[in-house]
Structure of Membrane fusion protein, Cu(I)/Ag(I) efflux system:
Amino acid sequence: MNRAISLGAAAAIVAVAGAAFVAGGMPRARPFAAPSIMPSARAAETGAIYYQDPDGKPLYSPTPKKTPDGRDWRAVPADTDVSFNDPEETSADKKAAEAKPERRIKFYRNPMGLPDKSPTPKKDNMGMAYIAVYEDEDSDDGSVKLSPGRIQRSGAKSEPVMRQPVRSVIRVPGTIQLDERRVSVVTLRFEGFVESVANVTTGDHVQKGQPLMNVYSPAISSAAAEYLSAISVGAAGKELKGARRRLENLAMPEPAVKEIERTREISLSIPWLAPQDGEILERNAVNGMRAAPGEVLFRIADHQIVWALLDVAERDLPQVTIGAKATIHPRALAGHTFTGTVALIYPHLNARTRTARIRVEVPNPDEVLRPEMYVDAEIETGAPDPVLAVPESAILDNGARQAVLIDRGDGRFEPREIRSGRRGGGYVEIVKGVTEGEAVVTSANFLIDAESNLKAALKGFAEADEMQRPAGQEPRP
């Protein structure tokens, strides 16, 4: 019956408060919907103090009722109605409190946070009671203890420290460039004349050994005649080898040398061959032109492997390593991806953009990647080996230190300083400070940390006040 009276009184207070708000000119607020009448005799017999709508709507009745579709309203017994209970005191909490041994009070501290404590209950000059500090709450390790209700309301959650790989992806822009090692030029080592040029031009694909032009030169004709003379007289050893070496020094193609050995004749002009497979980037040879030594007549490039030159931000550069896997997404080829590896990290930074350039070698068998294409790349960083790691949300970082909160059980939490390493995938590597299996707080940890810091500060103030107080003097009110 006392329970029912308290419910009725509370509902009346809520109703009066709602009426006061409306009368005072404030916007009309909907008061908390709770049973505002005494339970019926029928409810008292069944142990229910009232009945509630089965769909959870804020509708209540002192007597049994049914919904329009024929369902019974839900009976609410006294031991489950916690609408007006102290959030810290449910029936389960009361039972647990009765089972625990009595806690001993160590001292009372000032309610306003002043450096003052008292061995007996007292009030300050404003009439506020001092706050009791229990022995199990006053630890020297900076830990803090919270009641189950406060932990539940704050949403604090813990996870064990585990070993797992910590990998992350760096996304950067870049461009496609030719592999410098796969570009060659066609020149002459002697002064000569281009008698004719093959039917090839810029952009054409040529095969290694394919004729590009026919070349005539007195120098190469003279060397060929000397070699043929040595063959004809049956010269051997150093003399024959020296005559052949002169042709090689003039870069005469090997098929042309073998043709002289086979026919024992010297052609007026010699076919000049492509040195490699690839596309012609530049053609300067023209029929009948005079070619000087070293003059570039053709430039040929192989596109089977290209470079992706990527610009990585200075802050991300330490995470990139040689051999790291990179995925290339050309902007012009939607849906196409290419995979390569980091081959080189250039030694200089761009002073204006604060980025470093890295080189990724990318196979291009279909030759769809073209020089100067824009690409977006994803570089995988981190080691595949598992390391001690915690979720990123567990780290408390104020710029000067990094810490986590260790869940020691029974509502006690201990702040512990750590040293972190790599980050990736929502986790942070812990280099120092925790051991595998320890539980760390991953949610609402900043609230617990704030309370721990406040507790440590109040304790420090109190200790400083005691040291400065003369012997025998009472604490300040």
Notes: The first strand starts at residue 48 and ends at 52. Confidence is low (pLDDT under 50) at residues 1-39, 82-90. Residues 296 and 307 are 24 Å apart (CA to CA).
